[in-house]
Amino acid sequence: MPDETTTAPPQLKYERTTDFLNTYANNAYFESSAWDFRIIFGQLDQSSLPEPAIKQNVAITIPWAQAKLALYWIRLHVEANEIQNGKILIRADLLPPVPNPPTDKDDPDAQKLYETILKIREEFLASL
Q: Quick check: is 1 in a domain?
């Protein structure tokens, strides 16, 4: 556990580069590896009905430490928004599905991951 008495680092100045990208996404796809975590952002394109597609337009890859910090800050921002504006509604057809149990019953890591997914899903559903 971090030492709570540690002094904060100096405040950093934020500057945008000339090639800074500002875009919109209503879809995020996640990939992970032993080294880092990638989020691929995209947007639903219904122009090709009856077969709509997600048009992916940017990917951001971050190290695991940054992913864990982002989890904290995203949760903080979501909860602050809900305090100010009420619960964020999510349609039933967009909720995370119940995961399939692991096929390898002898793999303790697979079983632990399955139980973790169930726990996090239940916590998420309870927050709605």
A: no
